[in-house]
Amino acid sequence: MKVVGLTGGIGSGKSTVAALFAQLGVPVVDTDLIAHQLSIPPSPALEDVAAVFGKEYLGSDGALDRARMRERIFEDPAARIRLDAIFHPRIRKAAQTELASLSDGPYALLVVPLLFEADGFRGLVDRSLVVNCTQEQQLARILQRSGINRSLAERIILSQLPPAKRLALADDILENNGSLSELQRQVEACHDRYLKWANDH
Ligand code: ATP
């Protein structure tokens, strides 16, 4: 089975695109979901977090204190590398297992927000699909959600790959500046191309 890696900046529309592919019958494996599952206490990954960073990075319920950890890795790039070393190999392994467990079909979608930023994920996919939108759209969509204010949203956007670099690495691009039905049309056209590609290879 072929694997298409879906990526894009925060709030670009990855989950929306993944849901549209799922509606077309494409199996979707989402590394964000896997990361959440690995962070349900108690878990080996959280034990490593406590060992490496200290118990104060876990809440009283044993769950990851995401806000505190986010602050830490923004201030301290070495901490981000250590956190990635705890989670990324486990996420990759779980993604591989989940992909291998899928019943046979032409292709699957693997959602990886940091496909181009994180090590080792590009090796899991046969081609990449980037969801792209303007930074204003991105900000507006992020701010609609609770828990993220403008300054944090801007910091997260700046910490990610610049859009031009992401687009230069993309095999395929979906532009998501319009309506949901425009996005859906693009996804349907893309799906037709992927079916042909998967059958030809
Ligand atoms: P994150 O990086 O935070 O996981 P994401 O890239 O998965 O985000 P989505 O959650 O799909 O992005 O989209 C962000 C928000 O924008 C959601 O509330 C979604 O419903 C909305 N949205 C995405 N695309 C469109 C669109 N074309 N029209 C209207 N709303 C949209």
TrEMBL record:
Gene3D superfamilies recorded: P-loop containing nucleotide triphosphate hydrolases
Annotated transmembrane regions: none
Compartmental location: Cytoplasm
Transmembrane helix recorded as keyword: no
UniProt-listed SUPFAM superfamilies: P-loop containing nucleoside triphosphate hydrolases
CDD domains: DPCK
GO MF, any single term: kinase activity
Keywords on record: ATP-binding, Coenzyme A biosynthesis, Cytoplasm, Kinase, Nucleotide-binding, Transferase
Superkingdom, natural source: Bacteria
Major localization class: cytoplasm
Keyword Transferase: yes
PANTHER family cross-referenced by the UniProt entry: BIFUNCTIONAL COENZYME A SYNTHASE-RELATED (PTHR10695:SF46), DEPHOSPHO-COA KINASE-RELATED (PTHR10695)
Family matches, as HAMAP family: Dephospho_CoA_kinase
Name of this protein: Dephospho-CoA kinase
Species of origin: Chitiniphilus shinanonensis
Gene: coaE
